[in-house]
Write a structure and sequence with these properties.
The complex is a heterodimer of chains A (286) and B (301). Chain A is an alpha+beta fold and 286 residues long. Chain A contains 7 helices and 10 strands. The N and C termini of chain A lie far apart (63 Å). Helices cover 72% and strands 3% of the residues of chain B. In chain B, 58% of the residues are buried. Classes of the chains: A alpha+beta (286), B mainly alpha (301). At the A-B interface, strand 2, helix 2, helix 3, strand 7 and helix 7 of A face strand 2, helix 1, helix 3, helix 4 and helix 6 of B.
């Protein structure tokens, strides 16, 4: 990683192979346990087995469940086909990360492993990264305020509104100690694979070739290379349907890609306010 | 999984209709700041030009109004932070990739300069320092008036990001309108000519740019017709047009008409900021505005 010179490490990331996900949610639990993430209320959504619903300040892994009247394999000609898609979503640790670009305090930074992490002792809760993320990953931590909803007093936090933003750190503390992230460690089927991004990409392409040869319906890689609008994800996926089916944007683009043209527009519009005001002086004093 | 049929007849798939993006977490301090920051920036310009034109009463009024807006602005911003006690962290770094970082520095310079100039003007001392502070304030004013458009355009929210070429113009025009109106409020009509005409010109610009922005946004722009964005938008249009019309027709002769017209323009510009602000929330909430334009982009490439 640039800027780290001798301390730089190979870029580390996740390859999430959803074709072997069994929806056990061990990743969600392991993540909450290791990172001491507070409970944020229990809600029954009725959306298959998914009661987490989305990534957020208190959910850094989220397993999506999609029930489809579609065949799992292209050679399946049964009259009433059925398949159940499961996918464990996570922060993408983008190559071009909008959250990191727009953060005005430098709280968000790129680690020596190439991952994107919030420094919680620096974040002042300005909230800019929240709408900047093209995947809706970051959020401020809002803890339930109604009595009976969820634990009111969390010993580790001590207050109901935390004010800062939170997201997956790719277990920065564990990486520092030479361990793999908690979710990957807990995953019983190796659906979540942790390793050097270059090596994971090779592995993902081989896996896709195998699934295509076996006739899996809709198999595709998502965020697996530098061609897309975020320059590829440090965390990327093998999906079995279009990204939007899993709640992922089909063509995410880092917003700062257009920032230089935005600054030019800002400067011209700024100059125009002077011209406009000068015009207002043409008619004299009254 | 749900499949929804959009109003355009396009089939769109989503994850139980859930949003892909997160709604902003900003509270109503932020659109109010867009308004006060606009007044501060616009007043710096008006004040500087009035000095050059030797219209001293207009210059002083614009200076005081701008300095007041410059004092209110950071209070609003700090109040919106999740950790207000850490507001100084904004000044740890200067990042050109973050319009909020650039804006924090611009506001610091603008606020420091305009309040210094206003205090020295009031005390009648240190003429040279005052003139230097006025010059700095004049330079910081225009970017202060327009950068907030880029601040929201530099997000993943489609209704903001796709309007990146209109928002700085819209916010600049709105800032000019509100600075002119806020200054004209305190002046007799025979001294308020440039302020009044700036209010009318800015109001016309803001009405035009809002319309142009909505049209160019196309499908995504429909959020401006709906719910809160729509209600604030219609309110802004009515108030701004009525205020600018009153200023244009009666503002030169009647003080009462000038005050009423200025107040209407100010209310209209505040409503405009809320309309744009709320549109971002509405667009983030509905996955159609995220998925459909991206699918079209993929289809056309």
């Amino acid at each position: 990683m640039s800027g780290y010179s001798a301390e730089a490490k190979p870029r580390m990331g996740f390859f999430t192979d959803t074709s072997v996900c069994i929806g056990c949610k061990a990743c969600e639990v392991a993540c909450k346990e290791w990172n001491v993430i507070p409970e944020d209320g229990l809600v029954w959504t009725g959306e298959s087995y998914d009661n987490t619903s989305t990534l957020g300040a208190n959910s850094w892994r989220h397993v999506a469940f999609v029930e489809q009247r579609e065949a799992a394999r292209t050679d399946d000609d049964s009259e009433d086909p059925l398949r159940w898609l499961m996918s464990s979503d996570v922060c993408k640790h983008c190559t071009h990360a909008a959250c990191l670009d727009v953060c005005p305090t430098g709280a968000l930074f790129r680690t020596e492993f190439g991952t994107v992490v919030v420094q919680e002792d620096v974040c002042n809760g300005c909230g800019y990264c929240v709408p900047a993320c093209p995947f809706g990953v970051l959020d401020k931590r809002h803890l339930p305020s109604k009595p009976g909803d969820a634990p009111l007093e969390l010993p580790l936090l001590g207050k109901k509104e935390d004010g800062r933003v939170w997201k997956c750190t790719l277990c920065y503390d564990r990486l520092k100690g030479g361990h793999e992230p908690a979710c990957a460690k807990a995953c019983p089927t190796d659906s979540i694979q942790f390793g050097e991004v270059d090596e994971l990409r090779e592995r993902a392409h081989k896996r896709l070739e195998k699934l295509e040869a076996e006739g899996w319906n809709g198999a595709q890689l998502y965020l697996d290379g530098p061609e897309d609008g975020i320059g590829g994800g440090g965390a990327f996926f093998l999906l079995l349907d279009e990204p939007e089916v899993y709640g992922l944007p089909p063509d995410p683009v880092v917003t700062t890609k257009h920032l230089s043209e935005m600054w030019v527009t800002t400067a011209i519009a700024a100059a125009a306010t002077v011209v406009g005001a000068a015009l207002a002086f043409l008619g004299g004093r009254s | 999984m749900t499949t929804s049929i959009t109003e355009r007849g396009t089939e769109m798939r989503s994850y139980y209709g859930r949003p892909i993006l997160k709604e902003p977490v900003w509270k109503s301090e932020i659109p109010v700041y867009f308004f006060t920051g606009g007044i501060a920036g616009g007043c710096s310009v008006l004040h500087g030009l009035a000095r050059v034109a030797r219209q001293e009463r207009l210059a002083k009024t614009a200076l005081y109004v701008g300095a007041a807006a410059d004092v209110v602005s950071p209070i609003l911003l700090i109040s919106d932070l999740g950790r207000p006690e850490r507001f100084l962290n904004m000044l740890r770094v200067f990042k050109v990739t973050s319009p909020m970082s650039v804006g924090s520095w611009v506001l610091l310079v603008s606020g420091g300069a305009s309040t210094t100039a206003a205090v020295l003007e009031r005390l009648g001392i240190l003429k040279r320092v005052k003139v230097a502070a006025e010059a700095v304030s004049f330079l910081a004013g225009p970017p202060l008036a327009t950068y907030t458009g880029t601040l929201i355009a530099d997000t993943a929210i489609p209704v903001w990001h796709e309007a990146r070429h209109e928002l700085p113009w819209l916010f600049g025009a709105s800032a000019s309108a509100s600075a002119g109106a806020a200054t004209a409020l305190w002046l007799p009509p025979e001294e308020a000519g440039p302020a009044r005409r700036l209010a009318i010109l800015g109001a016309a610009g803001a009405l035009g740019w809002k319309e142009a922005m909505q049209r160019r946004l196309g499908f995504v722009g429909e959020v401006y017709e709906k719910d809160e964005a729509g209600r604030y938008g219609r309110l802004a249009k009515g108030l701004t047009a009525a205020g600018a019309g009153l200023l244009a027709m009666r503002g030169k002769r009647s003080r009462a008409a000038a005050v009423t017209g200025s107040a209407l323009v100010l209310a209209g510009e505040l409503a405009l900021r809320f309309s744009v602000f709320k549109a971002g929330f509405q667009a983030a909430r509905d996955p159609r505005y995220t998925v459909i334009p991206q699918r079209e982009r993929l289809g056309s490439s």
